[in-house]
Amino acid sequence: MSVTSAILPFQIGRDYDQAHASDGESRFGAYVRDAAASNSYAWDLQDAADQRHEFAHLAWMAATPPVMAPGYVRYHHLIKGAHVYRSQWDGSLLASVTLATPPPAALARLRGWQGWPRELSGSEYVPVEPYEEQIGRAASGGYLLTTTEMAFPLAASLPDIPDAPDAPDLAHTAAVAVGALVGALNDVVSPVLDAL
């Protein structure tokens, strides 16, 4: 499957990450080392695939809000959240992505209700949560903030995890894993964004 979106759903902000790193190398590297120091579960698993999937989950959490803000991984303006995790059922890699979407036709016809408010961010208007003041001033109805939740298995070619949570190659391996996740997510999410 090829990615056709003009703006990719997910991008890695390497330049910002390096430019704002307290260690001069990588903000993400510092966050993922902290995450591995406090959560070594991936190293407790026996199956190599389970280890890779659990490590990918740890790396994704360290690379995205709310842990990193702004995140090492940047989202398209219509993406409200994205999670990558290992299935507790069979150990497979799963993902969920929440998109801000227009209301379905049946809801769009309701009088007095508004969709997502938009604010200028850079050169485009992005959907944002309404402020309390905006909600309080709504003449009738209010805001219908519709979303679409995508839930799917994720096929990504992930590296083997480092030998230990404090291994010198931890940050590099985590960055490779996150890069693989971003590519796999873009393949799945791009056609949905193109359809909006």
Structural overview:
By secondary structure, the chain is of the alpha+beta class. It folds into 2 domains: 10-100 and 147-195, no CATH class; 102-145, no CATH class. 37% of the residues lie in helices and 21% in strands. The chain is built from 7 helices and 9 strands, in the order βααααβββαβββαββα. The strands form 4 sheets. The chain has a 3-stranded antiparallel β-sheet with strand order 3-4-9. Strands 1-2 form a two-stranded antiparallel ribbon. A two-stranded parallel ribbon has the order 5-8. Helix 4 (48-63) crosses helix 7. The two termini are 18 Å apart.
Numbering strands along the chain, what is their spatial order in the largest sheet? 3-4-9
Question: Nearest-angstrom radius of gyration?
Answer: 19 Å
Secondary structure tally, helices: 7
What sort of overall outline do the alpha carbons produce when their principal axes are compared?
A: elongated
Please write the string of helix (H) and strand (E) elements.
EHHHHEEEHEEEHEEH
Structural class, by secondary structure, is alpha+beta
Number of domains: 2
Distance between the termini: 18 Å
Beta-strand percentage range: 15-25%
User: What low-confidence regions span 5 or more consecutive residues with pLDDT below 50?
Assistant: 1-5
Mean pLDDT across the residues is 92
DSSP helix fraction? 25-40%
Number of distinct beta strands: 9
Major beta-sheet overview:
3 strands, antiparallel
